Amino acid sequence: MKLKTWFTVAATALTVFAAQAQEMSDDEIADRIKPIGQVHVAGAQAAGNNAAAGGAKSGEDVYNSACVACHAAGVLGAPKLHVAADWQPRLDERGLDGVWQNALNGINAMPPRGTCSSCSDDEIKAAIEYMIEGI
Ligand code: HEC
To answer: pTM for this structure?
Structure first.
């Protein structure tokens, strides 16, 4: 083999090797990032599952995730959080059980379960109790 040819082969091999090394390190980076992402997501899912499986969500949690969008500002006439003037007439007329049933089934612009289809009946009731707390 002539010296010039040897250099050409060596240089080509080096180029190929460098390209492979680059690919490998990209894969390595991907592999290193992946488990961190997976652990993070798995942790979040575990927390979610615990909330679903490990007993009821608190009324405040349900309110903040499902009801706040309408009941904070009184959207479409929704009775507002902790505002007695909005809630008292409803409670006088129907009682807690009556407004609870309407929350489960929906009433006018109030969607069934306030769109929280995964909420249990008791979680909806807890959210109502949170909204009328102290009125
Ligand atoms: C899309 C907006 C919206 C969301 C989300 C929403 N509500 Fe309502 N809610 C309303 C409106 C509007 C009314 C008033 C309905 C009426 O009496 O005409 C209402 C009324 C109510 C009432 C009174 C029912 C009665 O008999 O007077 C309860 C209780 C209630 N909502 C509970 C909840 C709970 C609990 C959540 C969350 C899980 C929730 N709502 C989410 C809009 C909403």
So the answer is: 0.71
